[in-house]
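Session log. Operator J.P. requested a structure for one protein chain; no other inputs attached. Running the standard single-chain path with token output.
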Amino acid sequence: MTVTITPLTGAHADEVLAIYQAGIDEGNATFETAAPTWAEFDAAKLPAHRFAALDTDGEPLGWIAAAKVSDRRAYAGVVEHSVYVHPAARGRGVAGRLLAALIESTEAAGIWMIQSGIFPENAASLAVHARAGFRVIGTRERIGRHHGVWRDVVLLERRSPRIS
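Structure written below.
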């Protein structure tokens, strides 16, 4: 399958939000219960660190985006990311390609750490992150309720070997 990684823009809004909602609906991607509006998504994500994976027809197969973890100056080199792949495109390396694009863009910008929180039941996401160099730093037990059930979140980080 040919996949092109491109900056994620408003031109991809409807498809990106539909992919996000599909992940939400499956129940092991996020505590969110509904995808945000494009305006909310756009305002929350760093424009230089968000990408779409497109098929040969230009249709989005997945997306990745990062957000600041804090406005404090000490955390200027730390971002948190989300990555979602359309259910029909999973298992084809799309998430790995998106993670590679994010790593490249963040390192070029001097960002030294990418972090994420993943439900432990989301084995595929944990595996693709491990392959991309992320390491588990702990589990936040019963951190929040999701549809009335307490859920744990595995914390992962990837520290850039290029930035000291």
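Operator note: The CA atoms of residues 5 and 53 lie 5 Å apart.
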